[in-house]
Design goal:
The protein is mainly α. The chain has a single domain, classed as Tetratricopeptide repeat domain (Serine Threonine Protein Phosphatase 5, Tetratricopeptide repeat), CATH 1.25.40. It is 78% helix and 0% strand. It is built from six helices and no strands. The chain is globular, with a radius of gyration of 16 Å.
Amino acid sequence: MNRLLLTLLLLFGTCTVAVADDLNDGIAAFQSEDYATALAKLTKAAEPGNADAQTLLASMYRKGLGVPQDFVQAYKWFNIAASTETDKEERDRSVRNRDLVSGKMTPNQIAEAQRLAREWKPKR
């Protein structure tokens, strides 16, 4: 039993470190305007549920940094970040950003973004 618990702790600890590495690498790439690398690293960190990566990814889609500007994807990632964020101020910021993006969208685009956010599941 102890061996199983230790194995699980090591496995999940390694996943957390990998996500943190991808997040840090993604932030560094974003800051140096290497948006292709930022997109790849932030996506890897966002998919398992990292709210910081989700927020940066949403910002990239909102502004069209390294990707075609896509308000549906921006809304989706801001919405997901708001639901996964544990810090109230950061959660509120994601909600405000999502709502700002929605002002540039049609009702059909909002519905599509909401559907994508609802169907999103963290990938391990």
